[in-house]
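User: Could you write out the 3D structure of this protein bound to zinc ion? I've included everything you need below.
Assistant: Certainly. Input first, then the structure.
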Amino acid sequence: MKIFYSKHFPPKDFGAINLLGMVIVRKDYGRLSEAEKNHERIHTRQMLEMLVIFFYLSYGIEWLIRLIQYRDRLKAYYNISYEREAYRCMDDLSYLKRRRPFAFIHYYRRRK
Ligand SMILES: [Zn+2]
């Protein structure tokens, strides 16, 4: 995974963004931890499964659905299925070795 550091991108609300498997991190955010790198690797896997374009499309659509549901931009972001999976599993550094394909689908409904 290639990581780039940038002064002005992504916008201030985000620490890092994954574009086609390349991760761009805001310089003022600092270095990514191993768990954060794992988070981005999980997104890269999701992207490949969704043939990239459908990942970004469904990501945006689900964010809008969550925005209506939660009426809060940040809450909407944290509750996108892709983010739920990535946040819940990022601390498990061997997660991707045993992850089943399309595992993010199981995160569409919130699990207790
Ligand atoms: Zn994420």
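Residues 53-70 form the longest helix (18 residues).
User: Perfect, thank you.
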